Amino acid sequence: MSMSCQGGFSAWNRCMSLARLCSNMQQLKSLHALFITQGLHHNNYALSKLIAFCALSLSGSLPYASLLFHHAPQTPNSFIFNTLIRAYSRSSQPHQSLFYFRLMLSQQEPNHHTFAFALSACANIPSLFVGRQIHTRVFKNGLAVSDNFVQTGLLRVYVECRVLCDAHHVFDEIPQRDSVLWNVLINGYLRCGLSSVALGLFRDMLVSDTVPDEFCVATALTACAHSGALLQGAWIHDYARKNGFSNDVFIGTSLVDMFAKCGCIEKAINVFDEMPERNVFSWAAMIGGYAMHGFANEALGCLESMEKQDGLRPDGVVLLEVLTACSHAGLRDKGYHVLLSMGARYGVMPKHEHYSCMVDLLCRAGELDEAFRLIQRMPMRPLASVWGALLSGSRIYGETELAELAAEELLLLERDGVVEEDDGVYVQLSNVYLGASRQEDAHRIRKMMGNRGIKKTPGCSVIEVDGELNEFVAGDDAHPLRLQICAMVRLLNHHIIHHTSYSC
């Protein structure tokens, strides 16, 4: 072997060894300079080591990875393309992932890793149009029915874009489904407000002999919490204990939330106390449960307990739940103290939702002028939740001028595209006018709703009977037991009227 060859191998081995030891961008840049002096920047394998560190390491730099890519002397290989597509897909700039995906399509054939990373970008944007294009490609090359990562990516795209019919169609065409795929679909229905369907899918998963993981169990418990399905939630609780999930912190947190929202605060407290490990989310769930049941002092006590017992400092979510507890209990001074001291005491600066909760507290207490002054002092633009609370409070206390102001601000938010059109604004303002005996203004608002095609959203309620959820929507007569239900309502109504007359 010649001396030049030996020197070349020595330089190569030294540079590759340094690449493995690289731990920060300062070392990476020095290594990059060494690569250039040794001519290794012409080698795609050597370049891929630099780009992989910049793009995927926690101490790397994604912009620097892009810089290396665009200054590459020769066409990058598929590994380099995939590294950038993958890195950008999970970054705050998922559109850049699709840029490199399109660039790769123009230069070489992508592989199964490429499609999985590009679909992840589509889900995170989300982009239904590009997702459908990729779906067509992977359907033609057979990856849609053979590659688990591509299947999960496709399912996530349709779920994130809230096209559940297509998501279910993709799911049905997958020959072998694991717990991850089931959880993506169940979570999709849950996020779209279809908790009853989500619970039905969880039961289907169990029937299919797919063993759920802790994420599936936690998602099913969340569906129970949203729909008030206590019996099903209790059954899942037993299932979790029998299958070794009882010590999982996420399942424990979901159980606390489920029992609290289903009205069983004592069971929520028992589960919380028995948890071997608790995190900030666990405390937020417990405080939220106390808030929901009107135990404001217990919720406030948790602020100190979580530091003493578990060494945890409250975050913005925990403090929001505490403010909610104060709002439900009408604890004006304590709520104000939490809002004004959270930055100095806990290092958490109040966000819009914290101000919104305090405005709601003041409106519930009838202090509408103080609520309006707080809105004026907010360091950010007040959004719908703030003006909605003021509008609702103004309706209750008959403050017509403030109601008109709040409604005007809400309509401005709609015009600016900050929020979607809400029929509740018009309905509440109409009710304010009716309460102030301003029938002409109320009629004007109702006429405006008719001209714009705005209809009042019907009321809806859900009740669990014998483990089965029953949903009732105002004006809907499609329930199969409608006649029996109406007969029972008439009987109860007759009994109430008779009992009231007798008592009088």
In short:
The chain contains 27 helices and two strands.
Roughly what fraction of the amino acids lie in strands?
under 5%
Average pLDDT metric = 86
What are the secondary-structure elements, in order, as H or E? HHHHHHHHHHHHHHHHHHHHHHHHHHEEH
Class based on secondary structure composition and strand pairing: mainly alpha
DSSP helix fraction = over 70%
Which descriptor suits the 3D outline?
globular
N-to-C span: 113 Å
Q: Biggest sheet, open or closed, and with what strands and sense?
A: 2 strands, antiparallel
What is the helix tally?
27
How many whole angstroms does the radius of gyration measure? 29 Å
Number of strands: 2
Protein architecture, described:
The chain has helices at residues 3-21, 25-38, 44-56, 62-70, 78-89, 94-107, 112-124, 128-140, 148-160, 164-172, 179-191, 195-207, 214-227, 230-242, 249-261, 265-274, 280-292, 296-310, 316-329, 332-346, 352-364, 368-377, 384-397, 400-415, 423-435, 439-451, 482-503; strands spanning 460-465, 468-473. 72% of the residues lie in helices and 2% in strands. Strands 1-2 form a two-stranded antiparallel ribbon. It has 504 residues and is an all-alpha fold. Mean pLDDT is 86; it is low at 1-7. The protein is built from 27 helices and two strands.
List the helices and strands and how they pair.
Elements: H1 3-21, H2 25-38, H3 44-56, H4 62-70, H5 78-89, H6 94-107, H7 112-124, H8 128-140, H9 148-160, H10 164-172, H11 179-191, H12 195-207, H13 214-227, H14 230-242, H15 249-261, H16 265-274, H17 280-292, H18 296-310, H19 316-329, H20 332-346, H21 352-364, H22 368-377, H23 384-397, H24 400-415, H25 423-435, H26 439-451, E1 460-465, E2 468-473, H27 482-503
Antiparallel strand pairs: 1-2
Helix pairs in contact: 1-2, 2-3, 3-4, 3-5, 4-5, 5-6, 5-7, 6-7, 7-8, 7-9, 8-9, 9-10, 9-11, 10-11, 11-12, 11-13, 12-13, 13-14, 13-15, 14-15, 15-16, 15-17, 16-17, 17-18, 17-19, 18-19, 19-20, 19-21, 20-21, 21-22, 21-23, 22-23, 23-24, 23-25, 24-25, 25-26
